[in-house]
Write a structure and sequence with these properties.
disordered N terminus; mainly alpha; 0% strand
């Protein structure tokens, strides 16, 4: 297949995914209208499940009949899991989770996961060879961690809750194994980046759907997304969109589309006022440009984000009042109460340091912190989250996974090769830095599998494949 036909095929795939995202977003807004959501939720669950099945069937029929591989299936499942993570946002509390009470949206999300698992189950019966990638090279660390998680469900406080999220982690791991098995060249990885970009464009823009549901809550609390989506999560999604736009902007420099989406991502990043996400995005972006030796572009990026921040202050947006209130309290010293949370968490970690308290035990631990205005439902630190839930037994494979990720990327950057491969490697390095940065105040690792978790695990899987592709490229002497 020529380069042009590959590009057309790639564009059609991304277009299909964007259309699916718009359909999901519109349907979610319609279903959340009060006169519909007052029902017991069965209608919401049923229609969403039917929508997912229908769109999946159309996508698979279109792709599998025209393509020679099943790569689109893996990408499609990951895309659906990403988009529905925000489309099925739940409002349950840690107290309700501890009591075993979950909202209808939680069951709706579980049905989406089950729907996505059906094609993988069939594929495992008829074409099981891809399953060998579950323990292929560094990917085995993800599989080992997943086994630890499933094992810890036995002693988790709320077993059904832990089992459901463990199932999603397993679903992501198997989907990535399928992708790794089917990827043949760097063009497939570029396609992965484009599909992740289309998903995060929808994820990052999700707070604006509040305009159709309840416009007065879009800046509730002074940050974009209000209390429904949460400022830190919104900023993290915006930061991910920025990084993916920067990567694709370097791979396709003539396309103005990724410059526009990068600007949109920057606006969302700043309007969410997620301090850690903003800092992590800046550092990760500068690392990307530094790895490619493009310092001028890095300086231009810093100037652009500074200009946007200045315009936001001058425009007297709601975030200005939030920042002024934040600076006027002692929340900055305690990282909005996180330091006290970590102290209590470390004390409980020492009680069961080797096996932890069970997967997602932090969700139901009901930490009591005097003066805290929000209810902690996790450790708000990636590494402490792993230790609290799964102990050293879970932390060791996570550290090995991170080490392998870094080694894969640096190995590609140190070797001369195609410019496109270096761009991808630098982008994966930026994603790794971004995840480690945001993970200092968020439970990206060890907790529930959210959008940034899926991006991280996907980038990790792509790093191993990219290293192999680059090695094959160098061996062939091209």
């Amino acid at each position: 297949m020529s380069w042009i036909s590959q590009y057309i095929s790639m564009s059609r795939s991304v277009s299909l995914f964007v259309q699916m995202g718009l359909a999901l977003g519109i349907s979610y807004c319609v279903l959340e209208v009060s006169w519909l959501s007052e029902a017991d939720g069965i209608r919401t669950i049923g229609i969403l499940a039917l929508l997912i099945v229908s769109l999946s069937w159309v996508a698979l029929k279109w792709r599998l009949l025209l393509a020679e591989n099943l790569l689109s299936l893996g990408f499609l499942i990951l895309w659906i899991l990403l988009v529905t993570t925000v489309g099925m946002t739940r409002t349950g509390t840690a107290q309700s989770a501890a009591e075993g009470n979950f909202s209808n949206a939680a069951f709706g999300e579980a049905i989406v996961w089950l729907t996505c698992s059906f094609p993988l189950i069939l594929l495992a019966f008829f074409r099981p060879k891809f399953l060998q990638c579950l323990f292929w090279k560094s990917h085995r660390w993800l599989s080992i961690y997943t086994i630890v998680v499933i094992f810890s469900v036995i002693y988790a406080p709320v077993k059904l809750y832990a089992l459901a999220w463990g199932f999603k982690l397993m679903l992501v791991g198997i989907s990535l194994a399928l992708c790794v098995y089917e990827i043949r060249n760097y063009s497939d990885i570029i396609r992965f980046v484009r599909i992740m970009h289309s998903a995060f464009l929808i994820v990052a823009a999700a707070p604006f759907f509040l305009v159709f549901i309840d416009p007065y809550t879009i800046f509730d609390g002074g940050r974009l997304g209000g209390l429904f989506f949460g400022g830190p999560a919104v900023s993290s999604a915006g930061g991910a969109l920025v990084l993916l736009s920067i990567i694709l902007g370097q791979l396709l420099p003539r396309s103005i589309y990724f410059k526009i989406t990068g600007l949109i991502g920057l606006c969302i990043l700043l309007l969410g006022v997620g301090k850690t996400a903003i800092l992590s995005t800046i550092i990760a972006s500068m690392a990307f440009y530094f790895a490619l030796g493009r310092l001028r572009s890095g300086v231009a990026f810093l100037f652009g984000i500074s200009l946007l921040a200045g315009l936001g202050v001058l425009s007297n947006l709601p975030i200005v009042e939030y920042i002024a209130h934040y600076d006027g309290t002692d929340q900055a010293q305690s990282l909005t109460g996180r330091t006290e949370l970590w102290q209590q968490g470390l004390a409980r970690i020492s009680e069961r340091p080797f096996v932890g308290h069970g997967y997602l035990a932090s969700k139901t631990s009901l930490f009591k912190i005097p003066g805290l205005l929000w209810e902690p439902d996790s450790m708000h630190n990636a590494f402490l989250e792993v230790l609290y839930n799964n102990g050293l037994l879970g932390l060791i494979p996570i550290l090995c996974l991170l080490g392998a990720f870094k080694q894969n990327v640096l190995s590609v950057l140190k070797q001369p090769g195609r410019e496109e491969i270096r761009f991808i490697a630098a982008g994966l390095l930026a994603i790794l830095i971004f995840v480690l940065g945001t993970g200092m105040t968020a439970s990206i690792l060890g907790g529930r599998i959210g959008t940034i978790s899926i991006l991280f695990l996907s980038a990790f899987a792509m790093s191993e494949r990219l290293r192999t592709i680059n090695h094959n490229y160098e061996s062939s002497g091209n």
